[in-house]
What we know:
Elements: E1 2-3, H1 4-13, E2 20-24, E3 37-38, E4 48-49, E5 53-56, E6 66-74, E7 89-93, E8 105-108, E9 118-121, E10 131-132, E11 143-145, H2 153-161, E12 166-170, E13 174-180, E14 184-185, E15 196-197, H3 199-211, E16 214-221, H4 225-235, E17 240-244, H5 255-261, E18 265-269, E19 271-274, E20 280-284, E21 287-292, H6 296-314, E22 325-329, E23 333-334, E24 340-350, E25 353-358, H7 367-372, E26 375-379, E27 385-386, E28 391-396
Parallel strand pairs: 1-19, 6-7, 13-16, 13-17, 14-15, 17-21, 19-24, 22-25
Antiparallel strand pairs: 2-12, 3-11, 4-10, 5-7, 5-8, 6-9, 18-20, 20-21, 22-28, 23-27, 24-25, 24-26, 26-28
Helix pairs in contact: 1-6, 3-6, 4-5
This protein binds adenosine monophosphate and magnesium ion.
Amino acid sequence: MISFEQARQVILENSSPVGVEQVSLLHSVGRVLAQDMLAPWDMPLWDNSAMDGYAVRSADCRQTPCTLEVTGYIPAGAKEDGIVVQPGCAVRIMTGAPTPTGCDAVVPVEDTDDGQSTVTLMQSVEKGQHVRVRAEDVAAGDTFVRAGAIVRPPEINMLATFGKSLVSVYRRPVVAILSTGDELIELGTTPGPGEIINSNALSLAAAVAETGCVPLIIGIARDNRESHLEKLGEGLKADALITSAGVSAGDRDLVREVLAELDAKQIFWKVGIKPGGPTAFALFGTKPVFSLPGNPVSTMITFEEFVRPALLKMLGHQQVLRPLFKAVLRQAIRKKAGKVQIVRVKLEREAGRWFASSAGNQQTAILRTMVAAQALAVLPAASEYFAEGAEVEVHFFGNYCDRVAG
Ligand code: AMP
Ligand code: MG
């Protein structure tokens, strides 16, 4: 058995991006940039006004109030067409319009009498005020977003500003999902005696999609060698494979054995985590193969703790673990020493601190507690007892954790 931390480390060491592709700008949202982006021009491209008002020479406006002759008008979108602010004069100017020659300050219209032929300024004027200087944001040739950045609306804005209609991002890995078990039937049929709907495939596909990878459900391998050979072989064609069930010590648990037969090299089996102890990890060439226990709660928790970080890394993300933070326990928790225990919790914020209470019955067969949970508490392997009021480390669980109903 390897530790929770070692398992994660080995998995992350063996997960990397599967290629780069060009996508249109809007399709790049949420993706990871594969290339530094260099500014093809200055931003802003010319000195311009930050306000609607009057372009002036600050030296003319030392005393207040002061009155200047208005000699021109520059709307947004105007070209630099030789307008000059002569001494003792002002030019009416709109936000974003290029500042005229001679101007070294803009006076907002609300600090004036809004005059048409002459204008009276009510406030003193500082050199440079309300003038945006060419290249003050980004200079031509500068890297304006780095490889590894996640494309969010701000990055989209910057990329669009610089005319980038296509961007180079890491490819989305196709992740095959294979369920195993003779008891499984597909969604759409009502279970008879001994039958269970293959819910893990759907839940895993949803979780894979949430990371940004492409889920590929390949169905069910029955509990015999031939069926495993066929279905696992199919799954190994994808960029990564996740299997559920058939990885414990039962005599029908064939996943590891048949993976080995197909030349997928087992890296570890059994991890110091509860739930999720029988998790296995293998490599087929460089493709990661995650074999998760079949109990739906264990499947989801091991996906969250081991598979999600790996898939994020394959997508090019640099920050792949959810941030841990401290929460105060509302109830005492007792556990066995030797394994990290993952506890499904609900969180509340009070007086500047997070408080964690159990989301319900913590037995691994209880799916309702998973549904009720907003976060997972990660209790270290060495500890056995956490008193009420003790601080534990927690992380949010799922993309909508802040909106899970109370
Ligand atoms: P196993 O690892 O094969 O012993 O399965 C552990 C438990 O998970 C059993 O109760 C199975 O019925 C259940 N299980 C296995 N596969 C799935 C699945 N795809 N969807 C829902 N439950 C499953
Ligand atoms: Mg089984």
